[in-house]
Amino acid sequence: MTAPRTGQIDIYIPRATTPAALDAVVRLHVESALCEDGEWPARIERSGGYEHSPGVMCWSVTYVTGPREAVPTHRGPTTSR
C-alpha cells in the first residue's frame, strides 16, 4: 500500500451542472485520475469555482489518498465566489 498523499486538480464542468451532479462529477474525475496510479481518494474537498470561459466553470479540488476500502468524504465549497 502506498503512503497517503495530498494532491490538487482543476476540473472544468459546464456551468449548468446541478449541485448534486457537481459532487458526483468531481468525485468521478478524481477517482479516474487516481486510479491510473493505483490510488484512491479518502477525502475530496472542492473550493469555490470560477467562470473559466462562457458556460464553463473551473473547480479547484484537493484530495487525500487512502486505502481502496475508504469511502471518500466530500466537503462542498469551502469558499464561494
Helix content: 10-25%
Radius of gyration: 13 Å
Biggest beta-sheet profile? 5 strands, mixed
Structural class: alpha+beta
Question: H/E order of the elements?
Answer: EHEEEE
User: What amount of the residues lies in strands?
Assistant: 35-45%
**Mean pLDDT across residues:** 84
SS field, number of helical segments = 1
Low-pLDDT regions: none
Work out the number of β strands.
5
Which descriptor suits the 3D outline? Answer: elongated
Distance, first to last CA: 38 Å
Question: Which SSEs are present, and which pair or pack?
Answer:
Layout: E1 6-14, H1 19-35, E2 41-46, E3 50-53, E4 56-65, E5 73-75
Parallel strand pairs: 2-5
Antiparallel strand pairs: 1-4, 2-4, 3-4
In short:
By secondary structure, the protein is of the alpha+beta class.
